[in-house]
Amino acid sequence: MRIRVRRGVVLSAGAIKTPQLLMLSGIGPAGALSLHGIPVVHDAPNVGRNLQNHACYRLQYLCNAPVSASRHLRPHNAVAAALRYALFRTGPLAETYAVAGGYFRTDPALEVPDAQVVLLSALGPARTGGAAFRIRDLLPDRHGFGLTVYQGSPLSRGAVSLRSADPLDQPRIEPGYFSDPRDMEVLLKAVKRMRGMMRRPAMAKYIDRELLPGEAVSDDRSLEADIRRNGATAYHQCGTCAMGPGGDAVVDSGLRVRGVEGLWIADASIIPRIPNAALHAPALMIGEKAAALIGGKEAG
Q1: Domains of the chain, with CATH numbers?
Q2: pLDDT at position 134, please?
């Protein structure tokens, strides 16, 4: 299907699909495009580069009393929660699973926080060791809670590239987690700090034992190994079509794709450096700003 436009196109497919679509359209690293037989419309070496994400690691604790959100799974509590939400839009169904969070410095000398933590009000899915995922694994059968600890300001960078010129092929994603060793150092210190906090009296009185990683993981070496084995992602991908003042940046301050007329990008791929935060609010801001710029309400 061919669709023609009179004024322009706004591309908003996210930090993975946006660079893929650009490269499939001939906008990207010329050498890589030529390898796939794609005619080069504009040589933009940084399309697909600078991929960033928040690597994270989850701690889990078993409670010694029925104080977690698992109590809402009991039949009478579940019915009460459903009625409360239906009638008043309040109660546990109106709340998030991640009930609290915060930011902190892993080094007191830092000017701003470099790590973040989110408290999960019930036990999350257990590690399955490669076993098939089941929906019921999402429902905790014991009282407990989790802490997801993030390296909030990663220095590691990855890349998105093409597998082929077939638009139905998934792109190749090289996340690059911990390719900069400083990221592991930060996450290791952040996890250790949270484990220490859970041993303080105010929290320890509610904890029966640490489920993950478990007391057997007691030194830096074993903890780092477990982070590498069981670490996860926050799905905060960004940076692959980064905005910047230089001619090598993919988009300019008006969100226009350099070297191409009538093409803008409005998604998290334009973020040049990942913030120590989730990307929902920045993505909304980018959309609002793009609407104002492209609509002519602001000077581009």
Answers
A1: 9-52+245-294 (3.50.50.60), 55-233 (3.30.560.10)
A2: 55
